[in-house]
Each structure stands twice: as structure tokens, then as C-alpha cells.
Design a protein that fits this description.
Strand content: 15-25%
Distance between the termini: 68 Å
Number of helices: 8
Structural class: alpha+beta
Largest sheet: 4 strands, antiparallel
């Protein structure tokens, strides 16, 4: 068996009604949300709020697609991505319809994409709004750049929210449910040889975890173990092992640098219990040593006071 077969991989399956549900939801939410966004941008000419509104529109359109993909048990990333893109394009189109309607003082409703394009070209020549105190309208290439960035945020943002959200949650074919339950076990010492560790767990040699031992005092590197499963279901589990290194930036803030060692290795319920027991026993030994050291220190302090 190849090592790839040991890891979770989406089946790519989806029910027959999923494409219609995903595409229709993306289109409807995108159009409604985009139209409201276009009106809001016109009536709230504050650039910082406009940026937040743009992000919100992408989250709304992509989130709607993601939600329906969960509801329909869609396990096909390509379909989710296409629906997310459609939702973004629909939102972008409707935003221009709403914005131009507001521009015309709610008298002209431009629905033809070609006419919208012609109006955009006309507006770009002189511009309609300015940035800063200069009062000079943004026009030409600068205005096209702003529109391009806005379009990218909406379309790519919606697609990204849907697709990345889909990828984050695996699906159990045996339980026919999303694996939303993640248990993070206590950390262990850093792994010296990632490749050797990976070969060990792929060969079901989980005793290799006992060799790691607890996290040494004062170290800035340790290993996290996540067990992923369907809530209240014990048939299928996934193991993810991550090497974490703590560093301080120029401001003295602690940052985490995460490097996956094992990503979603398929394990059974018995192996999950074995892993949990090994790690908990190891960390319990570490805590016992810490407690013994604290007691010894307290005894020494009492003796010196006497």
C-alpha cells in the first residue's frame, strides 16, 4: 500500500441535486448581497468602511456556498470552487447594478453587462470621487486599478472562503458526516527526524511517541497532536501532527511557526485510544516531576528559614 492511501482524501462525491443547490445559492446570495453592497458604497462614501463592506460581501457570498456544500454533503472541491466563483461574479455584477442605480438617483436600472462596461469607461475618464484633501478625482489607470482590486477581493474572496472552508473539514464516508470534532492532546518534545517519525506512524509504530518524552523546560519548539473525528462517532479518526516553534518578533510579540509532520493520517478507534494514553501518560510523568521539584524547593526554603 502506498503512503498516500494511508491519508485522508476527499471522495469527490456529491448528490445529484448539489450542483443546482450550490450554483443557485451562490447566484441568489451574490445578486442580493451585491446589490445591497452597491447601494451602501454609494451612500457611505468612507473608504475604510467601503473596504470592510467589500470583505463582508466576499464572506457572505462564499460563506453561503460553503454552508450549502456542508448541508448537501458535497465532497467535491472543484464544484465548491466553481460555485464560489459564480457567487463572487454575481455579487460583483449586482454591485455595479446597485451602484449605478444609486448614481442615477434611482431612475435608471442598467442590467446589460455591456452597458455597464460602457458606463465604466465613461466614468474612468473623469472620475467621480477623490481620496485625501487634494479634491482631485481618481480617474484613468488609477481608477481602473481600484476597480480591479475591488473585483478581485469580491470574486477571489468568495471563491477562497468557500474552497478553503471546504478543505478545512474532512468528511467521513462511513459515518456520512463531517468530521468537525478536533481534540488537541498535550504537547510532546520536538521531533528530531520528521521523515523517520512519519515512516514510523505510517507503519503503525506508535511506540515512537514514547521516545519523544515531555516538552523540555525552556524550549521554544514542541509537537502538537490533533485527533479529528465525527462527533459522537467512533468509527473513523484522523491524526495530524504539527511541529510548533515559538519566536518573538521585533515588538517582542510571540508568534507561532507551524510545520505539518503528519497530515490527516487515517487511524481506527483502538489506535486513537492508544495515542491518547501514551501522550497523557508522558505528560503526567512530566507533571509529577514538576510537582516533586516544587516540593523539594519548598522544603529547602523551609529549612533555610529555620
Amino acid at each position: 500500500m502506498s503512503s498516500a492511501a494511508l491519508y485522508y482524501k476527499s471522495s469527490g462525491r456529491f448528490p445529484s441535486y448539489a450542483p443546482v443547490a450550490l450554483l443557485a445559492t451562490g447566484a441568489v446570495v451574490g445578486i442580493v448581497g451585491g446589490a445591497i453592497y452597491g447601494l451602501a458604497v454609494w451612500y457611505i462614501p468612507i473608504i475604510y468602511l467601503n473596504i470592510l463592506l467589500t470583505i463582508g460581501l466576499a464572506l457572505l457570498a462564499g460563506g453561503a456556498v460553503l454552508g450549502v456544500s456542508r448541508w448537501t454533503h458535497t465532497r467535491n472541491g472543484g464544484l465548491v470552487l466553481i460555485a464560489g466563483l459564480l457567487a463572487g461574479v454575481a455579487a460583483l455584477y449586482a454591485s455595479w447594478v446597485g451602484w449605478l442605480w444609486a448614481l442615477s438617483e434611482r431612475e435608471v436600472l442598467v442590467l446589460d453587462p455591456r452597458e455597464i462596461w460602457y458606463v465604466m469607461q465613461a466614468i474612468s475618464e473623469n472620475g467621480l470621487w477623490s481620496i485625501g484633501s487634494s479634491g482631485t478625482p481618481v480617474s484613468g489607470l488609477a481608477l481602473w486599478a481600484v476597480w480591479f482590486i475591488e473585483a478581485a477581493m469580491i470574486v477571489a474572496g468568495a471563491a477562497g472562503v468557500a474552497f478553503v472552508g471546504y478543505q478545512r473539514t474532512p468528511y467521513s464516508e462511513s459515518a456520512k458526516a463531517w468530521m468537525t470534532d478536533t481534540e488537541t492532546l498535550p504537547p510532546l518534545a520536538p521531533i528530531a527526524d520528521h521523515a523517520a517519525f512519519r515512516r514510523g506512524v505510517e507503519g503503525s509504530d506508535f511506540g515512537i511517541l514514547t521516545e519523544l518524552g515531555p516538552v523540555p523546560e525552556g524550549t521554544d519548539t514542541f509537537t502538537l497532536y490533533d485527533l479529528i473525528s465525527v462527533p459522537n462517532d467512533n468509527r473513523e479518526h484522523l491524526l495530524t501532527v504539527t511541529s510548533v516553534t515559538l519566536t518573538a518578533n521585533k515588538k517582542g510579540e510571540i508568534q507561532e511557526n507551524r510545520k505539518p509532520v503528519v497530515n490527516r493520517l487515517i487511524i481506527d478507534a483502538e489506535t486513537r485510544e492508544l495515542l491518547s494514553q501514551i501522550i497523557r501518560d508522558t505528560t503526567a510523568e512530566q507533571q509529577a516531576r514538576i510537582d516533586e521539584g516544587a516540593e523539594a524547593h519548598a522544603d529547602q526554603a523551609e529549612a533555610s528559614d529555620a
